[in-house]
Structure to design on (808 residues):
């Protein structure tokens, strides 16, 4: 008897028809002799609707009351999915994050999982029920209701899979799996049948929207096997799992892109120990998520530091930047929110030198200027003009022969 | 420093504007130096919408999963009300029924309150917060989420008032108080400035829709003072409280009517001890709520028994009735769902003989046939044709000179 975790996103349970289709698949999985834990997101645009209501009644709603509000969305979907599964003659019980024993720290809106108790889930499974768990939510060590951050329904599924040693964690979504590039931009993009957790991590971090970054990190730390697939076609999707040394790696598993960030450049920074630390500590203290950081070699005792941050944080970063520039005695700073990042990800590039060179040549041949570069062992990222990024994705996908 | 409980119904918190108006009133009450516990219902038609969704995904949704679903409605409204109060600079915290310590039995959909713990509410009040409690819900002794039955948000408010010895339990609704008759039928109906809990109980039981019956019972048992008033005009409404022996009673405090019931008559029932017991035990076992019961004197060893039940229960009562008729060897039974009940309620009628006679004469003078009669010390009810009931209300309101 296998234990399967299935996660259904907002579009997968967007209306009663979709809920009945999902319930049918859950019931089949259970009837095939599997134990099943289901995690669901809020239906369709419910979360956005609730946020809009909150902004209509208060000026800066957040924290405890916002979490109380938003957790209603998953409560509705777990109840409806359970009813629909019960209606097919397969017993199912719904559980809130709190009832499922998802214990977190006390950071409202973005709580971190501390422990998964799961006693009631185990009991439900042992007595022959499908357990339907609300994604995205938990209970803090202070006994308050919290949310785990947007997109964290994936995290709930992966955490449940880790806690119960599930044979597979199936993430159902509205695409068929992980593609070599965004199929809306590259029509001949190819669905990968498998990629490694490390590749998925780099893809999630650089704009691959299929899985949330935190859930991939959690899966890697706990050895969870993820199967990303479609709840619309039910076709086999992409397996995301630990690297298998017997299997030859594709050199490149995908081209990702991300146009949600802005670039900040601090000019004429005195080249002294401790300066970079000061800059990024100040931003971290204000919870601004800094992504790429590039510092050039120093000339004449000064250097420029460039980094990217989410565009939505640009406005509230301005006073922090003014303070930093004064403190470290830099010449000033510039913000550029017309950039985008294009990345090549592939575990195979570790053993294939020349990937970066081919990438830079390809961009140059297409008259696309590279503004920043950063690399990891399995990724090369370039910052380019936002207006060039789709051409960059198509050119790279073609140059590395990733298409069908 | 007084402790005030305020309850806001679904229309009172029906949209963001209403929520901000309610928050303003709560903030004023708190700023005036009162401790405030607020209870809210789900916004507008939320509960109906959720029930519709449930019926779209399953054939007979109820029990545990239905309660999980419906409790989302009040969760949304407590969070929004708390945010809006906080936004006015008055600290407020929201609590689910479970967090408020409303402990119940295990009957899903219609749970009875067993105990109000309220530790977290006390803590919130002691530290200067408004406590906003979800109406209509609690946690069962089996640690499951339950609902207390429709209209039970009033009950939550009254139970909180009883637990904390509140100085007043203000029930805010979309009417200005308790009227001598339904103003939609009797334009000159008068708002009562006060009525007794006993009168309110009889009115609630006979079609007065302002307060739910269970909440009035709970208030009477625990000596809670209720003030029914409007959240649209904020004008003083009707005080519902224990009888004050120094105050002269109005003879009649109101005419109520109810067209939600059907009449069932069992014909030719053998006049033997135990027969009535059998009939009503069988119905009670199936949770059919029997209201008026009338049995005529027996002739030739047989009698007819008539009673009223909610029309919504007629269909599911049919097999029970067939079984009962066979068991007690009656001739058969008839169902009539075109009836309505008109009632006169008034604590003063105890000391004023002739009220019933005047009522019957008034109906006769208006050619309205009386099909069943039942009385209590402070109420007389007549079953009439449904098509006659509005005329009956107007005629009685006039005959007893109840108008403005």
């Amino acid at each position: 008897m296998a234990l399967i975790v299935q996660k259904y996103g907002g579009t997968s349970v967007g209306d009663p028809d979709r809920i009945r289709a999902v319930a049918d698949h859950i019931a089949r999985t259970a009837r095939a002799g599997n134990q099943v834990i289901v995690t669901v997101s809020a239906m369709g645009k419910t979360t956005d609707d609730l946020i809009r209501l909150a902004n209509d009644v208060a000026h800066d709603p957040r924290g405890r009351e916002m979490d109380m509000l938003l957790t209603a969305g998953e409560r509705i979907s777990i109840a409806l999915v359970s009813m629909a599964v019960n209606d097919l003659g397969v017993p199912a019980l719904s559980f809130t994050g709190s009832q499922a024993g998802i214990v977190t720290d006390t950071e409202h809106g973005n709580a971190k999982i501390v422990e998964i108790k799961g006693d009631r889930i185990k009991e439900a499974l042992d007595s022959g029920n499908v357990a339907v768990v609300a994604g995205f939510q938990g209970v803090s060590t202070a006994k308050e209701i919290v949310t785990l951050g947007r997109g964290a329904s994936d995290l709930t599924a992966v955490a449940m899979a880790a806690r119960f040693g599930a044979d597979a964690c199936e993430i159902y979504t509205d695409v068929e799996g992980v593609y070599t590039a965004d199929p809306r931009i590259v029509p001949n993009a190819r669905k990968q049948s498998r990629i490694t957790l490390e590749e998925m991590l780099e893809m999630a971090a650089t704009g691959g929207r299929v899985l949330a970054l935190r859930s991939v990190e959690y899966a890697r730390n706990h050895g969870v096997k993820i199967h990303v697939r479609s709840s619309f076609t039910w076709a086999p999707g992409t397996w995301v799992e630990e690297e298998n040394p017997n299997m030859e790696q594709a050199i490149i598993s995908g081209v990702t892109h991300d146009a949600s960030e802005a670039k900040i450049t601090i000019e004429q920074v005195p080249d002294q120990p401790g300066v970079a630390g000061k800059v990024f500590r100040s931003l971290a203290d204000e919870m601004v998520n800094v992504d790429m950081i590039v510092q050039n070699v120093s000339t004449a005792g000064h250097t420029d530091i460039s980094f990217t941050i989410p565009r939505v944080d640009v406005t509230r970063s301005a006073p922090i930047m003014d303070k930093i520039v004064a403190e470290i005695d830099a010449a000033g700073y510039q913000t550029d929110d017309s950039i985008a990042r294009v990345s090549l990800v592939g575990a195979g590039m570790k053993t294939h030198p020349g990937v970066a060179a081919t990438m830079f040549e390809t961009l140059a041949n297409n008259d696309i200027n590279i503004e920043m570069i950063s690399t990891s062992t399995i990724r090369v990222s370039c910052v380019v003009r936002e207006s060039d990024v789709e051409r960059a994705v198509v050119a790279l996908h073609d140059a590395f022969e990733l298409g069908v």
